[in-house]
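Morning, I've got a small favour to ask if you have a moment. I'm working through a protein record and want to make sense of it properly. The fold is given in discrete form, as structure tokens running alongside the sequence. Can you walk me through what the tokens say about the fold? Thanks so much in advance, here it is:
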Amino acid sequence: MNPICIVDDQPQICSAVSGILADEGYDTVAFNDAESFWQSLDTQKPSLVLLDIWLPGVDGLELLKRLHERLPALPVIMMSGHAGIETAVTAIKAGACDFMEKPLHLEALLEKVEFAINRRPARNGSAPAAGSGPGGASPESSIPAGTLEVVVSSRPQRTLGENVVLNGVGLLSGRKTGIILSPLGVNEGVVFQTLDGQTIPGHITSLENYSNIDPSKLFSANSTTLANGMQQIRTVEHLMAAFSVYGITNVLIKVDDEIPNIDGSAKDFSDLIARAGLVKQQAPTRVAVIRRKIGVGKETRGEKHLYVEPFEGFEVAMRVDYPQPIGEQVFTFNPEKDSFAEEIAPARTFNTFENIEMAQRLGKVGSGYLNSHIIIHEGKVINTELRYADEFVRHKVLDLIGDLYLLGLPIRGRVVANMTSHGYNHALVERLYQATRNS
């Protein structure tokens, strides 16, 4: 994919936005003025431009008009910290596809970039092909019948042997929090309960911003948050991954607004479940058996994509390719052959120092980020020793397993992922859920 160009006279904005997008697998080029960017168009064609309104010399609105004349199909997102609604309307009328106010909201930035790149009209004015991005999931009716079959397996349902408690710090909030895990009866599922007694099913339909009417809706890319309209529970993905691999189908999770964590991995949850023990229940588990390949994204090496295909068992194959110190990493996990507790659960969340600093300035995260992430700065890990040379791709596998369990059923199939994050995971699960309704 061609690079995303960032045009802003504030170097810290260029650096922060470049880092955020690079972490999502995008190539970026930054410019501090309109003239240098304009000259670059002789040798490169951007896939998207993030353009500040207030620039020295030629301002952003004038540059937008020139761009629209030269490259009318090029999507441009305008940015400003001092513009009002009139300026935003002017920018849209002049050809901008979207507008963002500073300070930039991380989740909104990623969603707008994803939408602008994958959902823009084709040159001939036709709509983009279905499945061109995480939001490219087709409506329910376009998923062929027989893509997925829900079957009764010989595997019994499971719950915990006793109540167990874990205290820690919220991954995003940095506040002290805790959970109580309790056994549940047959067919009750994975259920979260807030301190005021409200329940939220651990299911794709409880995902924050989920819309059953619009299956192409983009979801949050930073973590997995469940909500019921009044309450929310954040960062459930690592705990859900542990439930999935250990076959826990019925469990109650009492929690405040965020699942606790110690180091950004699932090791604490794996240890907690081992301490509680597992109880087989007198009812079989239903399984989602993949009969036909189904996925999201464009299946090329340089593009994000994610799909699941028929396979006897369950397996996840993940590839990432990010700036150093990560580079290209590939890992395949099969719970029948590999140990989740040893190979996947200890892999920790990672982020760049610049992203964390910006997120804290925006009030999106607390001090929990500093102690529960592998922190990268200037191409090096600066706060810890890696547990595995390929810890980064292993953590992506962990996140994917947790998000897939939002289907509410274990999956019998092989999952293949290329540089994906939560947004793609959620989009695939939403498609799988629609497929269960066609089965």
Confidence is low (pLDDT under 50) at residues 120-133, 135-141, 212-221. DSSP finds twelve helices and 23 strands in the chain. Residues 47 and 128 are 15 Å apart (CA to CA). The chain has two domains: 4-128, 148-438.
